[in-house]
Design goal:
With 172 residues, this protein is mostly helical. Helices cover 44% and strands 0% of the residues. The longest helix has 18 residues.
C-alpha cells in the first residue's frame, strides 16, 4: 500500500486507477487504458494449468532446462483439454494464514478502489474468510496418487511437445 500511496503523491501522475481483476486481466488492462484489445485478447488470460498438465510436467522434469524455463508449460496451457480440472493446493490452515497475513493490506486497498469496486471487494468473502474456500477440493501435489498420470493424456502431451521440437523419452 505504501507504493500506491507514494504514486498518489507524484505530481506527474494525473490519475491512479486501481481495480479488482475481473477474469481476463489482459482485456481489462486494454479497456482501462482506452485502447482496443488485440484480436486474441479473449484467448489470453492468466490461468492455471489443468491437473493433467501439472502431473505430466512433474513426472517429466527434464522438459525444463532450469526452474525458470516455462516453454513446455506455455505449450501445454494452449492445448484444449476436455474435462480439465484446475487444482487447488492450499490447505484450510494455509488459506487462513494467507488471509490473516494480508488482512490489513486488503482493508487498505479499499481506499484505492472506486465505490463499486470497494463494495464488490467488501461483499466477496474470499478476501476475508477462510471458510469461503471450504468447497475447494485440495490436491496434495507431492502425494503419489496425485502424480499418477492418465496414459492417454500423457501420450497426447508427448505427441504435441514432439511436434514442437521437444525431445521426449518413450517412457517415464
Amino acid at each position: 500500500m505504501k507504493r500506491l500511496k507514494n504514486l498518489r503523491e507524484i505530481d506527474q501522475i494525473s490519475a491512479l486507477n486501481v481495480a479488482l481483476a475481473n477474469g481476463n486481466v489482459v482485456a481489462q488492462f486494454f479497456e482501462a487504458i482506452g485502447c482496443d484489445a488485440p484480436a486474441d485478447a479473449a484467448e489470453i488470460e492468466n490461468r492455471s494449468l489443468d491437473i493433467s498438465a501439472i502431473k505430466f510436467l512433474l513426472n517429466n522434469r527434464g522438459l525444463r532446462k532450469d526452474i525458470h524455463d516455462s516453454k513446455a508449460a506455455l505449450i501445454l496451457a494452449k492445448l484444449k483439454v476436455e474435462n480439465s480440472e484446475k487444482p487447488w493446493c492450499l490447505s484450510a490452515n494455509q488459506v487462513q494464514s494467507i488471509i490473516r497475513h494480508h488482512l490489513q493490506h486488503n482493508k487498505a486497498l479499499l481506499e484505492f478502489l472506486d465505490k463499486d469496486q470497494a463494495e464488490r471487494m467488501r461483499a466477496d468473502p474470499h478476501w476475508w474468510q477462510a471458510d469461503s474456500y471450504q468447497t475447494a477440493r485440495v490436491h496434495k501435489v507431492g502425494a503419489p496418487d496425485f502424480l499418477h498420470e492418465d496414459d492417454a493424456q500423457s501420450a497426447f502431451y508427448r505427441t504435441e511437445l514432439r511436434k514442437r521440437g521437444f525431445k521426449m523419452r518413450a517412457s517415464v
